[in-house]
Amino acid sequence: MDGDNIQADSGLGSDFDDDFDPLVSENDPALPSDRYLDRELSWLAFNQRVLELAEDPDLPVLERANFLAIFASNLDEFFMVRVAGLKRRILTGLAVPTNIGRAPQEALSDISRAAHVLQDRHARAFEVLVRPALADAGVHIVRWESLGEAERASLRNYFGNQVFPVLMPLAVDPVHPFPYISGLSLNLAVRVRNPKTGKQEFARLKVPTMLPRFVRVDPAEGVENLRFITLEDLIANHLGDLFPGMEILEHHVFRVTRNEDVEIDEDETENLIKALEKELLRRRFGPPIRLEITESMDDVTLGLLVRELDVTEHEVYRLPAPLDLGGLFDLRIDRPDLHFPRHVPTTAVQLMPAEPNAEPDIFSAIGRQDILLHHPYESFATSVQAFLEQAAADPNVLAIKQTLYRTSGDSPIVSALIDAAESGKQVLALVEIKARFDEQANISWARKLEKAGVHVVYGLVGLKTHCKLALVVRNEQGVLRHYSHIGTGNYNPKTSRLYEDLGLLTADPQVGKDLTRLFNELSGYAIEKKFKRLLVAPLHLRRALLKRIADETASAVAGKPSGIRIKVNSMVDEAIIDALYRASQAGVRVDVWVRGICSLKPGVPGMSENIRVRSILGRYLEHSRIFSFHTGGDPQVYIGSADMMHRNLDRRVEALVRLVDSEHLAEIDALFTRAMDDRTSSWWLDATGEWTRHHQDDAGHPLDDMQNRLMQQTIHRKRPVGRR
């Protein structure tokens, strides 16, 4: 789940790094050997922060249910990628993480223990906190046994007409081997007895995914008083229809998580797409790495599942029903009072036309000044999307070049590129078909782009192209002018309404030249290492960041002003962390604002007492990456796509762009100041790896919600006047 995974549509995604490279940082005798927090346990701590939002009674109850679903989705991916990858490497003797500080098997056991505690807490949060709160609000998730006969009759009719025809019970006997259990599917394990022979049999029944997970008990009920029953509960109470003449002895729900990571040796394949499609088929049959069962499951049924699926005792998670709370995503109810207040993104002030009913001219607006966008507070549709749509329709535009990491096939971005190509423009789309869990979708719409005449390329061998770039070349009175967009988030209109991201629109010719060189490298064979306003990985981004950290360290040693502020999704890279430790030792004040994983230990005397680490989680997924350096009072500030992880710095094409407009620098400074303010609601990390939520003051009053504050600020920005 590169962390931009669309699975996290409804809130807080997560970031996964499947590389276990040796330490990039050299062993520093001035720093203790136990200076890193465990990456996997830090990720579980991140998901615990998501869970704490679900447990918060001050949040709207349907949002709390949504956070429960996000937690479940995140944890599924953690097992499919991180746990599966660690287990595979242990079994095959490959390199394992170097910052765990203990034996690999011990690390896996620690992860298992922490995951068991969290999954149980998650299940109890639903049963004890969220389900009752939903009921208080008129949304009841009920069980079959609580229903009256008239309600049961109505549901029997629904079952017979809508559910029964698509069910496929699979028996297990000498003629029918144990069936394949697909990853993340919800299943009923059924044991029956033949009353004539007395022989017991086992069957597996998959809960159909194309049907609603929560079934309305009475569709005529108003939205103020709704009742739902889970689909598996409905099916379980109609097993007699599926096994006529048999005696139902036991039925229990279970769910399997499999290793679903994809591995391709790009140096050994002639056709990357065909190799990837073959690997995607194999992924469906990855080995199981987690078995979730309902707490009532009997030992006979459990023994059969453990034996047939070949899982260990530590990989079994016994939980109260219902399993798979990710299904709460499907609990879509038209009750605005149970959701966060609706927020409509505003158009960026610089992109507003001077007259309310006038058509905006994106190119003129960008030509006047660099425009810093902040989504979702400012609209993606009226900025980035409008930029590309106007470029596609503009007869003066000659070429459009763009990277696409994750988007949707019906996206207006894809449509704009197709329209541009069909109108005769030169269009280049660099599609990253190795974006985890979006591989098949990316392949499909990449082919659609190719059919429309778009030049589609797939990046460089051995590297993922993760940078977020768009370049438009326009003929203006015989002179070619470059219009550029560099962002921190994907070109995805759906996630742009949920992910917090920054983007820069600029007509700076230097940025245009930088992007032209970079696109040439990505689509051809040019190797360009010199950029003016960009920092690019894997060529020199790591080295450039280390140089800037070292410069701040030197300033502090010399008694000059210094400071470092970094906002990322993940802070894992050892060389970067060690450089920040050395900066702290020299007296540099370091602020780290991280959403997910953080292996850095703040507040350790003699090592990191000048480092603060904060995390902000809420209705939007904090996704932007920012790197700010004091630089003797001449701030050097960058935004872009890179997190501080091995893969981002060494095995991906990433790009950061330097902000130069004084208003933009002030905006970033104010953003950091608010985020790190003790009066802002956030989580604080201590040296032991514990995150503590600070959301109330000593009197019990709520602290400032930064995301709400930013929404209010953007709403009240004024329309420009007097433009010529």
UniProtKB/TrEMBL annotation:
Domain named Polyphosphate kinase C-terminal: residues: 361-526, 534-698
GO molecular function, one term: metal ion binding
A GO cellular component entry from the record: polyphosphate kinase complex
Top-level enzyme category: transferase
EC number of this enzyme: 2.7.4.1
Any one GO BP annotation for this protein: polyphosphate biosynthetic process
Residues forming the catalytic site: 466 (phosphohistidine intermediate)
Binding site for Mg(2+): 406, 436
Annotated segments matching region Disordered: 1-24
Binding of ATP, residues: 74, 499, 595, 623
Alphabetically ordered keywords of this record: ATP-binding, Kinase, Magnesium, Metal-binding, Nucleotide-binding, Phosphoprotein, Transferase
Modifications made to the protein after synthesis: An intermediate of this reaction is the autophosphorylated ppk in which a phosphate is covalently linked to a histidine residue through a N-P bond.
Domain Polyphosphate kinase N-terminal: from-to ranges: 36-142
Catalytic activity: [phosphate](n) + ATP = [phosphate](n+1) + ADP
Occurrences of domain Polyphosphate kinase middle (ranges): 151-331
InterPro entries assigned to the protein according to its UniProt record, in alphabetical order: PP_kinase (IPR003414), PP_kinase_C_1 (IPR041108), PP_kinase_middle (IPR024953), PP_kinase_middle_dom_sf (IPR036830), PPK_C_dom2 (IPR025200), PPK_N_dom (IPR025198), PPK_N_dom_sf (IPR036832)
Cofactor(s) for this UniProt protein: Mg(2+)
Family: Belongs to the polyphosphate kinase 1 (PPK1) family.
Function summary: Catalyzes the reversible transfer of the terminal phosphate of ATP to form a long-chain polyphosphate (polyP).
Xref: HAMAP family: Polyphosphate_kinase
Protein name: Polyphosphate kinase
Organism: Cryobacterium psychrotolerans
